[in-house]
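seq as requested:
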Amino acid sequence: MKKNAFLLLPILLLSGALLSQNTKDVYDKAMVLKSEFKYKEAMPYFQALIKVDSSNIDFLANGSQVYTRFGYLYMTSESEKQKYFHTGEYLAKKAIAKDEKNAEAHYAYALALGRINENESSKTKIANAKLIRKEVDRAIELNPKQAGAYHILGRWHATIAGFNAVEKAMINTFFGGVPPGGSYDDAVKCFQTAISLEPKNMIHQYELANTYYAMGNKVSAKVWLDKAMALPVVSDDDKITSDKCKQLKKKLN
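struct tokens:
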């Protein structure tokens, strides 16, 4: 807790200082940091922007993504992570309410829901599955080049494919099934699309390798794992992915 409090203090102080700066300059800087996957550095900028104008769709949609990623990367306890994920959810829903045709807002909502879902019960995961699919499909419809949306859709397919017999029965019994798909082959296609759009983003290649591993295709899993591990580690997100790559490599050896 002390570590996290120490981390948040400069963020809160910097947020106040940024309020006196030109809003456009702050937003431009925030977006550069976000594009470079520097979520810790981007956080105070988006906090300040949302304080200045909590109705700005761009601030809300992009701020939502940063909140979700910040919670995942820098919070240690599950309860702390969930606070950031739920803030991301709130901001995304607010952005969608203001502009239903904003692709980044729908992607942000799916991203937050996906993180919220990770440690939920099977029943809650299944209940949220339809909503995540709806949001990510809408994001792709509005922006077919949104690599992150394809990544989430790939994980969605892989998650459904990995459900056991009881979980699959729950889908049909309690929720009337889920949208079409939910196979490892569908997941592979989505991750391949994400890679084509963001070839240097390690997480896409790792998830493709992991999907092939789940399918029992160790040859393809190794090929894509090697490609992922050949990429430079340039962000905190990459560091986590790099560790996951090493763990998968041990399974493949």
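The radius of gyration is 19 Å.
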